[in-house]
Amino acid sequence: MIRTFEPGDEHALREIHLASITRVGPLAYSPAQVAAWAGRTREAWEWLEWHSFGDRITIALGDDGMPVAFALLEADGHLDMLYCHPGHIRQGHALRLVKEASAYGRAQGLSMLYTEASELARPVFEAGGYEVEHRQDFALDGVPIHNYAMCKVLSLAPAPELTTLVR
Question: Which residues lie closer than 8 Å to 5 by C-beta, 6 or more apart?
């Protein structure tokens, strides 16, 4: 099941964010890169702030009803975050969230979504219809790292029905 953020989810999202970076990140990034990236883990209060600003945080739930993955979509179409807990990767949660963001974006009248995808997230975004614009090389706390600027043009066709349970 997929639903939108509720106050009280912020601690689970922080845990998913950090666990994904530190336990999945090493599959494509060096220890120094992972450490620099993990240093950017968001605090619980930041999730509440994003929610209060109107950013859409969509959460995939595991069989036990607990959050296992999330996506943060800003009002301008920027899909800022997509993370899945390491114990729940390769189960389709991330792709469902990417597709849900597209359906929501269409429903909001957006013509395009864009993101900066990690090496690990790039295939998920490609499966969701995003195209790579270019590789971005930069430094986090002096450590060289990269990601991919990607975008997806949203069709003018009627949006598929959202699958999100809104609370």
Answer: 13, 47, 51, 56, 57, 58, 59, 70
